[in-house]
Amino acid sequence: GVNSVAEILNVTDRATERALLENLAQEDPDLVEEIRRLMFVFDDIMKLSDKDVQTVLKNVETAQWAMALKKASDDLKNKILGNLSARAAEMLREEMEYLGPAKLSDVERVQQQIVDVIRRLEDAGELVIQSDEMEEQLIP
Questions:
Q1: Which is higher by pLDDT, 16 or 92?
Q2: DSSP string, the chain
Q3: Cα–Cα distance, 122 to 130 (Å, whole number)
Q4: For residues 41 and 113, what is the distance between their CA atoms, to the nearest angstrom?
Q5: Sign of torsion, CA 46 50 54 55?
Q6: Sign for the pseudo-dihedral over CA of 111, 23, 16, 14
Q7: How many CA atoms are closer than 13 Å to the CA of 140, on its beta-carbon side?
Q8: pLDDT of residue 140
Q9: Considering the chain, what is the average pLDDT of its residues?
Q10: Average pLDDT for residues 1-24, to the nearest whole number?
Q11: Are 51 and 62 in contact, with CB atoms under 8 Å apart?
């Protein structure tokens, strides 16, 4: 099913993934969108390097982060806040408190918007999403 396809594509190289999804998009664009949404989820931001998180932070509004982080793990919140200046992190904390309760559907919608930004940044070559299985060694 779709979940299996997403898992398989998560561990293939980017060129193969693109080729398969482009070909499939000609037949069923909605299916491709569903697969893409399963391939990288909001919690996968933990897999991004600090440099890549900072790139995402520059492309997402503080209000979106405040909403999206309402349902995030403490580790993910700390990763995001740790990549902000002290002042910006404090502003984000205040924004999160100010929001109060939010509908789960609203939180998930904003999380998906952030994932969509991440996918666009990856397609533009501005960041790299690596799965656990594809950790690449860096050569100094």
A1: 92
A2: -HHHHHHHHHTS-HHHHHHHHHHHHHH-HHHHHHHHHHHS-GGGGGGS-HHHHHHHHHHS-HHHHHHHGGGS-HHHHHHHHHTS-HHHHHHHHHHHHHH-S--HHHHHHHHHHHHHHHHHHHHTTS-----GGG--PPP-
A3: 10
A4: 11
A5: negative
A6: negative
A7: 0
A8: 62
A9: 87
A10: 83
A11: no
Task: Judge whether 115 and 46 are in contact, CB under 8 Å.
Answer: no
- Token pair of 132 as six digits: 């656990």
What token pair was written down for 51? 């440099």
Alpha-carbon 123 to chain mean position: 13
Looking only at Cα atoms, what is the longest distance across the chain? 49
Dig out the tokens for 109 from the structure: 């919608």
**Structural contact between residues 15 and 7, judged by C-beta atoms closer than 8 angstroms:** no
In this structure, is the dihedral angle defined by the CA atoms of residues 23, 2, 68 and 125, taken in order, positive or negative?
A: negative
Distance CA 126, CA 26 (A): 26
What does the pLDDT read at residue 58?
A: 96
Chain position carrying tokens 């209000």: 63
Which of 9, 117, 124 is closest to 59 using CA atoms? 117
